[in-house]
């Protein structure tokens, strides 16, 4: 652990290979970090390579080149670090180097692009200029949040069900299977069970998914190896590395109240879903949890997505007769970011109605919309490490 971290945090306990850190430091990135866009691409009437139909996946190299998958056109497209189009990769189909609807995209180092193609039951590996390098047959479908991840050792982490699911709302055990670039299974890592709670309600918004403030466990594989876990009631996380080193980091925080018009909108949605038979009659909490989700980037930084004060949004246009409630009060996606060693870096609030596509050591890649509602990719500079 660095001397800066020792000065910035209180070590509450250190025993064996477990280290507990109470983070009290000021943010290393500064108190008021402002995201600075390096470029934005996406036009209504532009050429096909920047007139996006449905941006679904993006994978970027450390040097800044990136590939995105447009799900409307079923096309992989290459761009340089400034957003200049370099060409398409493969095409729709089932032949060598072709693909259907991709559900995962990741770089193995900066030399191999792995594309998960469940409809063709395979992972296809492409080189840096889009040439076909290899095909890995896959018999099992991988699923869920964070289902397809690459680590710095060049392994792919693929999330799967560990056994046959039981009936009712019992949690379903899940594992990550780790493959090398030849498709050989290296090992498997136990992961969070897949929860199936009828009381959970999720609304898909332009700020990303918004749940009805559930209490839940959180986790993500770390590209540095091991798993990062946490809980919605905790502004902190636990890094379980292999073989057995554990880092526990926590920072003080106060939950936000769920009151007023914001609460009324959620209660209206809940009543609507109960009437539809799609939610259980469980009351909303009086306070929001601290954390909605967590991410881990290729540098091992941990991004805790925190609940933030709600802001007014324009109502969603609805067709005549659509009686669904509106959710015009919601928070912009906001992260508390920590370095791999637990050092507190700072708080980042995304522009309203934007979502994370990818994170690299020096950039944050966002999905957003332009003035004419066109889909865009925006690259924002992150502070130097």
List the helices and strands and how they pair.
Elements: H1 3-8, E1 9-15, E2 18-23, E3 36-41, E4 55-60, E5 66-70, E6 75-79, E7 85-89, E8 91-92, E9 98-99, E10 104-108, E11 112-117, E12 122-126, E13 132-137, E14 148-150, E15 156-161, E16 172-179, E17 185-194, E18 202-205, E19 208-211, E20 217-221, E21 227-231, E22 236-240, E23 246-251, H2 260-275, E24 291-296, E25 302-306, E26 311-312, E27 329-330, E28 334-338, E29 344-349, E30 355-359, E31 363-369, E32 375-381
Parallel strand pairs: 2-23, 8-9
Antiparallel strand pairs: 1-2, 3-32, 4-5, 5-6, 6-7, 10-11, 11-12, 12-13, 14-15, 15-16, 16-17, 18-19, 20-21, 21-22, 22-23, 24-25, 25-28, 26-27, 28-29, 30-31, 31-32
Q: Could you explain the architecture of this structure?
A:
By secondary structure, this protein is mainly β. The protein has 2 domains: 1-32 and 207-352, no CATH class; 38-200 and 354-380, Neuraminidase. The protein is 6% helix and 43% strand. The protein has 2 helices and 32 strands. It has helices spanning 3-8, 260-275, and strands spanning 9-15, 18-23, 36-41, 55-60, 66-70, 75-79, 85-89, 91-92, 98-99, 104-108, 112-117, 122-126, 132-137, 148-150, 156-161, 172-179, 185-194, 202-205, 208-211, 217-221, 227-231, 236-240, 246-251, 291-296, 302-306, 311-312, 329-330, 334-338, 344-349, 355-359, 363-369, 375-381. The strands form 9 sheets. Strands 1-2-23-22-21-20 form a 6-stranded mixed sheet. It is globular and about 55 Å long.
